[in-house]
Amino acid sequence: MYTRSNHTVNVTPRFRILTDDQIGELHYATLEVMRRTGVEVQEPAAVEKLAQAGCHVDGRRVRFPAHLVEWAIDSAPSCVMLCDRSGQPAVALQGERAYFGTGSDTPNIVDAETGERRPVLKEDVARTSRLVDALPNIAFMMCSGIASDVPQAVSDIHHFEMMVSNTPSRLPSPPGAWPT
Fold first, then answer.
1. Cβ distance 180 to 158 under 8 Å?
2. DSSP 13
3. Which one, of 137, 146, 129, 124, lies nearest residue 85 by Cα?
């Protein structure tokens, strides 16, 4: 014989501001904005596909009928699994799960050695990547800063290089030099 308990382990705290009715009102208001105002879509091929799907197109302005938005919501998967670079499941985006990760693209950093605030350097992105990778409760990493010592037009490539070359699942170096 055993006794059942109402004790639950590891429940994620919930903070809720809106009621179900308010969420419904917000959803219907959003559908109305999508129907009346729509969005500006820059990619011509995307505009064409949206028109073929039943959206109303006026130049780059695309307006979405409510039934198409509802179809997209209904057909979205209930879980999206993000995997690490080795292909192993790492983060399940579903339900009320919450994950912690880094913020991104800050122009300045507080130097760990001097305590001074200064512009981010490429090496800071590398150091932060190593630190974040070592923290067990951080589920994802975004670029920690905008390196001021690389050309801005190709800075994303340099940031990516620092992140992947300073975490365990190292990618092979690309042939040739990084763009400058």
1. no
2. P
3. 129
Structure tokens at 142: 């975004």
pLDDT along the chain (180 residues), means of 10: 54 80 97 98 97 97 98 94 84 86 90 95 94 87 92 94 81 44
Helix (H), strand (E), coil (C) string for 87-149: CCEEEEEECCCCCCECCCCECEEECCCCCCEEECCHHHHHHHHHHHHHCCCCCECCCCECCCC
Instruction: Please report the sign of the dihedral spanned by the C-alpha atoms of residue 99, residue 101, residue 106, residue 111.
Output: positive
Helices 122-134 and 155-164 sit at what angle, rounded to 10 degrees? 40
- pTM of the complete model: 0.61
Decide if 86 contacts 169 (C-beta within 8 A): yes
- Give, rounded to a whole angstrom, the gap between the first and last alpha carbons of the chain: 72
Domain range annotation of the chain = 20-75, 92-173
- Phi and psi dihedrals of 71, rounded to 5? -60, -45
